[in-house]
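Whether sequence alone determines local backbone shape is best considered at the level of individual chains. When preparing material for the folding task, we compiled for one chain both its residues and its backbone structure tokens. The sequence in question and its structure tokens are set out directly beneath this paragraph.
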Amino acid sequence: MKTIMIVEDEAILREISKDYFLNEGYKVLEAADGKAALALFQEHEMDLIVLDIMLPELDGWSVCRRIRKSSDVPIIILTARVDEDDTLLGFELGADDYVTKPYSPPVLLARAKRLLESRNRIGKLKQPDDSIEVRGIKVHFPSRTVMIDGTLVNFTHTEFEILSYLMENQGIVITREQLISKIWGYEYAGDDRTVNTHIRNLRTKLGDKAALIVTIVRTGYKFEAGA
């Protein structure tokens, strides 16, 4: 049974979302503020977090930032803001997806299922010893870990998915549309800056190996081992 934490200060919205997840067989943890969310995170294993941004005690940005220091658990942010820069900030802090409020609970449920399915997909398809290693970057699929020159580097769920996909298709140009379809799996509602932000975060963590991810102008990206 997968465990979902819903962090939402509006009790009615929290209850409605909770009911949808319970009806699909998920275990649900609830928090009405940021401090309570962090306390639950420390006490329980969880598979996905639905995180509102406007929270009492501690806002969603701060909660996301603290969780990302120690975990790559998928995070969906809920935001009533329409400013694209706010959404991009969420991605820069490590969120995997976002849903704009007011939202349809079935849409939120579908987004959550997609993230959980993609998290499980690689481990099911690969053998226990499967990994990819290129130029000192080693991706181990069953454990979803990345080693760079022997050092473990923490990647978010979405960053891991993108890096794995690019490495598995090294030398092949992957369009932004292909990335969106593969990683998010639903109709894209934003602009190219969302994908660009995730790639920028990836490159930052890759350090001096960032050049292995090559930008193909007006098209997409390519993992080039000879870069």
Remarks:
- The domain at 3-121 is CATH 3.40.50.2300 (Rossmann fold).
- The mean pLDDT is 88.
- The chain is about 45% helix and 20% strand.
